[in-house]
Design brief:
D-Maltodextrin-Binding Protein, domain 2; Double Stranded RNA Binding Domain; five-stranded mixed β-sheet; 9 helices; globular; binds ligand PBG; Porphobilinogen deaminase; HemC; EC 2.5.1.61
């Protein structure tokens, strides 16, 4: 809802004489997401709910956390704009400890992200990682009730919801490389709605858009076959795009990393180049191991 309100405010600033109505679908979507994520590992069910609303003519556009938008959209939809990225970093949240390094052996860390799990396990094998689901309030509640010594959340979500003081420390990309699209919001519309595309074009942030295109290209290369810990984070400096990426096994024992730079005008090429580099670093065999598990 915060994100939808944010987009509405931006649209009303651009088009003061228009009206923007918010069709709230958070609760239902959250329930569906919570119920099914653990069973089928499916991503994008909440996105699907909003797509159904657009297909039914109930909504013209949908506002998403880009991280939750599947890499391949159905042909009936397109992304019309990617908004300027918030903090892309992961946040360490705890009532008792300052950072991951301060946690004693056996301390329980909450996250359901395979990426966060692999990155923590690789650096801190003495910690115990347990699943943590639900919306932000639910997750913080579980921490506060003592179910975890610490939890890892996206900094962007905490900042947007006015809870930056819950962030005990930020995990730098060198330690916890963000997920593709983390911290960015995207607006999805029915494909071919040129009127909407034009209205929304001013909301698109060119640097964020280039960065997440590179990240999502890489994710597309590795995401299709199985659920695998995957990180990709790109930044723009001038006309150059720089990206780092990682794939690994959930236990953190095998990790492949790669980084490269290229022109910001060709983000997909950089994404493919880094995918190739990851493959020569052993990503292919990591994916094979993951398929064998499934
Ligand atoms: N994993 C779910 C998810 N999808 C988007 C965000 C919020 C941050 C963002 O917009 O990227 C979160 C919460 C989290 O990872 O802690």
């Amino acid at each position: 809802m915060w994100q939808a309100e944010h987009v509405r405010a931006q649209l009303l600033e651009l088009y003061p004489h228009s009206s923007v109505e918010i069709l709230g679908m958070t609760t239902r979507g959250d329930q569906i997401l919570d119920r099914t994520l653990s069973k089928v590992g499916g991503k994008g069910l909440f996105v699907k709910e909003l797509e159904i609303a657009m297909l039914g003519g109930h909504a013209d556009l949908a506002v998403h956390s880009l991280k939750d938008v599947p890499m391949e959209l159905p042909p009936e939809f397109e992304l019309a704009a990617v908004l300027e990225r918030e903090d892309a970093r992961d946040a360490f949240v705890s009532n008792d400890y300052d950072n991951l390094a301060a946690l004693p052996a056996g301390a329980v860390v909450g996250t359901s992200s395979l990426r966060r799990q692999a990155l923590i396990a690789a650096r801190f094998p003495h910690l115990v990682i347990r699943p943590l689901r639900g919306n932000l309030d639910t997750r913080l509640g579980k921490l506060d009730r003592g179910e975890y010594a610490a939890i890892i959340l996206a900094a962007a979500g905490l900042k947007r919801l006015g809870l930056p003081e819950r962030i005990r420390s930020l995990l730098e990309p060198e330690q916890s490389l963000p997920a593709p699209g983390q911290g960015a919001m995207a607006i999805e519309i029915p494909a071919g709605r040129a009127d909407l595309r034009q209205l929304l074009a001013p909301l698109d942030h060119a640097d964020t858009s280039a960065a997440v295109r590179a990240e999502r290209t890489l994710s597309r290369v590795f995401g299709g076959s199985c659920q695998v810990p995957l990180a990709a984070y790109a930044t723009v400096a001038g006309d150059q795009l720089h990206m780092r990426a990682m794939v690994g096994t959930p236990d953190g024992l095998r990790v492949a990393t790669a980084e490269a730079s290229g022109p910001a005008s060709a983000p997909e090429a950089l994404g493919r180049q880094i995918a190739d580099a990851l493959n020569t670093q052993g990503a292919a065999s990591i994916l094979e191991a993951c398929k064998a598990d499934a």
